[in-house]
Design brief:
By secondary structure, the protein is mostly helical. It has 16 helices and two strands. Strand 1 and strand 2 form a beta hairpin.
Length: about 350
């Protein structure tokens, strides 16, 4: 296979990858039991409850783009990374279905979450089916055994990150048992970064990359995942609801221990923040105090550090030129989105 010409911007990179992957992703979903396939299609924004076509927007397709770019970075055509892209999209959808149930989130992408639309049991079943389909997709691809091992390792990290995230909710904001920023970064690397790193590495493996190149892409993707989560944390407090689809200060009302909160709590300027977080109806005051105590700045600085680490890894790894340029474009676009 020969490398294709690089798209000219990050949105172009995302759109090109979605166009490349969508037919294979739909074909995979259609192999499921019809009811389960409908729930999966609903989760991707392709249909409404009952199966009628939907105009609901799906996600950006970051993971599938990383898989396609991973293959191109190895010098192959992006199509070599399509099985990896399909697998990671299926795993991501599986994780979101289960996350929404665990977190009690009733909406996803501006409409009812799958468990609210179809019921908890059916949503769990759909998530399990998507996971099984992801493994099947990789197992039948070239280099399938190694690809499945890579995916399994990422899933183990994702589960550890999710477990830590759930446990954080049971820990206090202050005192020796409090959640530290370092613990949060480790959680974010597992919950968010592991699958991003896996996507890029899987694409590279299917594109014929050696172990060192795949490993570098995996580590870069993990750094990107941490930066992505930190920017999400900022948007979860100060983001424009018209853009994010979530109410301003929603993370504070949910009492989530996000990075801006944890960073602010470590500052003497945040005196009284713990009490504000525990008091309903004071999210705006809490947001102002977090910002004045440096929580927002610290979070964006940390996100920038991880973005720089990802760039450094990519810069010293021998990658196909066009793919490397697109990886840099995508990295900067995701780190700077809507801030």
């Amino acid at each position: 296979m020969t490398a294709v010409e690089a798209p000219s911007s990050a949105p172009d990179v995302l759109a090109h990858s979605r166009d490349l992957v969508r037919p294979a992703l739909r074909e995979a979903v259609e192999r499921l039991h019809p009811w389960v396939a409908e729930m999966a299609a609903y989760s991707f924004g392709w249909c409404e409850v009952g199966g009628a076509p939907a105009a609901a927007p799906g996600g950006k397709g970051v993971r599938q783009a990383l898989a396609v770019l991973g293959a191109r970075a190895a010098g192959a055509d992006g199509r070599a990374g399509v099985p990896a892209a399909v697998a990671v999209e299926l795993v991501h959808a599986f994780s979101l279905l289960h996350d929404d149930i665990m977190d009690g989130d009733v909406t996803r992408r501006r409409r009812p979450a799958v468990w609210k639309a179809y019921g908890t049991g059916p949503a769990v079943l759909a998530g399990d089916a998507l996971f099984a389909l992801a493994v099947e997709t990789l197992a039948t691809a070239p280099q399938g055994a190694g690809a499945v091992r890579l995916l399994s390792s990422a899933l183990a990290d994702l589960v550890r990150g999710q477990a830590d995230d759930l446990l954080f909710a049971t820990r206090p904001c202050t005192g020796p048992e409090r959640v530290t920023p370092g613990e949060y970064r480790a959680m974010a690397e597992g919950k968010t970064g592991a699958l991003l790193g896996c996507a890029a590495a899987l694409g590279a493996v299917l594109g014929g990359a050696d172990e060192a190149t795949a490993g570098a892409l995996d580590r870069a993707g993990r750094h990107l995942g941490v930066a992505f989560q930190l920017v999400d944390d900022v948007l979860g407090i100060w983001g424009d609801p018209a853009v994010t689809g979530k109410p301003a200060g929603g993370d504070l009302r949910a009492r989530k221990k996000t990075y801006p909160v944890l960073a602010a709590l470590g500052s003497p300027a945040a005196c009284g923040l713990a009490e504000l977080l525990d008091t309903p109806g004071r999210a705006e005051e809490a947001a102002a105090l977090i910002e004045s105590a440096g929580g927002r700045t610290a979070t964006l600085t940390e996100a920038g550090r991880h973005t720089a680490a990802a760039r450094a890894l990519l810069a010293r790894t021998p990658l196909a030129t066009g793919a490397a340029a697109d990886l840099f474009r995508l990295l900067d676009f995701l780190a700077d989105r809507e801030l």
